[in-house]
Write a structure and sequence with these properties.
- The structure holds two protein chains of two kinds.
- By secondary structure, chain A is α+β, with helices and mostly antiparallel strands.
- Chain A has helices at residues 12-15, 110-114, 136-148, 160-166, 173-181, 193-210, 216-224, and strands spanning 5-7, 29-40, 46-54, 57-62, 69-73, 77-83, 93-98, 125-130.
- Chain A has two domains: 5-148, PH-domain like (Roll), CATH 2.30.29.30; 160-224, no CATH class.
- Helices cover 29% and strands 24% of the residues of chain A.
- Mean pLDDT of chain A is 76; it is low at 106-116, 157-169, 171-176, 185-192 and 211-226.
- In chain B, a hairpin with a 4-residue loop joins strand 1 and strand 2.
- Chain B is elongated.
- The chains are: A alpha+beta, B alpha+beta.
- Chains A and B meet through strand 6, helix 3, helix 5, helix 6 and helix 7 of A and helix 1, strand 4, strand 5 and helix 2 of B.
- Chain B: It comes from Macleaya cordata (Five-seeded plume-poppy).
- Chain B: Keywords: mRNA processing, mRNA splicing, Nucleus, Ribonucleoprotein, RNA-binding, Spliceosome.
- Chain B: Residues 2-76 form the Sm domain.
């Protein structure tokens, strides 16, 4: 998977039609929105484009320059929002933040804003401006739906045990000892223990994915706030 | 699903979501899904000097994987209940 924004030029119909999707891998179009302008970071607004939202990515294709287009995977879209506050941006738009490759972090956004040479992989903000602002809410909902279709990959089995037992910060040590010494002495053991264990694994896996390296402070705060 | 259920109980309350890129967004928790994606309403950025352009947005969807912390309203934290739940989880493992 490529993090961040990239150029997109593959169109059907001799390069003038719709974007070419990875249909072999189940990619399908969810929404087509003509009349959308795009703003990358603080660069100038690029007008007259069409927005294509698939279940995998967001694609904007220029209507004017058929060789121009951008795409970003939903996996790289950290946040999206409906921006209607003129102080935030003069016109109503869908505001998105894009996760970029950490190697590109040393130079700030300002680079891409100042110079004409555009390094797409460093763009961390994208605004989509539909000509009709009343479309914002439905676009937002489509983005939500697609984001939910693209959870983080690599949360495979096999890591779960390591995670559970390395997380003794979750319970105080005394309790962890107690648990390891009295595995059968569980309150919820009567019925449905298996289900419970399954649920636990699921939630831990989820938690781990949710915040790969930084879960413990949350749990700590939950426990220490008593 | 403990944290999923837990956050669902907080729907309608004010929370602050801190992202791994240091942006902190405060808003009303609208919904949360199984991936801990978070939807906020009536949001505002906590550190407005640093992120002036994001002053406020109406609806905001935050990808669960980019969340570092969620600051909870103190009155929304039932410590006893959470303590119990985490114990049960630990045993279940």
């Amino acid at each position: 998977m490529v993090l961040g924004l990239r150029n997109f030029t593959e169109r059907t119909g001799d390069g003038i039609g719709q974007p070419v999707l990875d249909t072999d891998n189940g990619e399908e179009l969810m929404c087509v929105q003509p009349g959308v302008d795009i703003v990358l970071a603080n660069r100038t607004r690029e007008s007259h484009g069409t927005l294509y939202v698939s279940n995998k990515q967001v694609i904007w294709l220029s209507d004017v320059d058929k060789a121009k287009g951008y795409a970003v995977d939903f996996l790289s879209v950290s946040l999206h929002a409906v921006s209607t506050d003129p102080e935030a941006y003069p016109v109503p738009c869908i505001y998105t933040q894009i996760e970029t490759d950490p190697d590109g972090y040393e130079s700030d956004n300002s680079d891409s804003e100042c110079s004409d040479t555009l390094d797409l992989s460093r763009i961390r903000e994208m605004r989509l401006i539909p000509s009709d602002p009343s479309q914002l809410d439905s676009l937002f909902e489509v983005f939500c739906e697609c984001a939910e279709l693209n959870p983080e990959p690599n949360e495979e089995e096999g890591e779960e045990h390591e995670w559970i037992f390395s997380a003794d910060q979750m319970v105080d040590e005394e309790e962890a000892d107690y648990i390891s010494q009295n595995p059968a002495h569980a309150i919820g053991q009567s019925n449905g223990d298996h289900d419970l264990a399954h649920t636990v694994l699921q939630s831990l896996r989820m938690l781990r994915r949710w915040s790969m390296t930084e879960t413990t402070p949350i749990i700590d705060s939950v426990i220490s706030s008593k | 699903m403990l944290f999923f259920s837990y956050f669902k109980d907080l729907v309608g309350r004010e929370v602050t979501v801190e992202l791994k890129n240091d942006l902190a967004i405060r808003g009303t928790l609208h919904s949360v899904d199984q991936y801990l994606n978070i939807k906020l309403e009536n949001t505002r950025v906590v550190d407005q000097d640093k992120y002036p352009h994001m002053l406020s947005v109406r609806n905001c969807f935050i990808r669960g994987s980019v969340v570092r912390y969620v600051q909870l309203p103190p009155e929304g934290v039932d410590v006893e209940l959470l303590h119990d739940a985490t114990r049960r989880e630990a045993r279940g493992g």
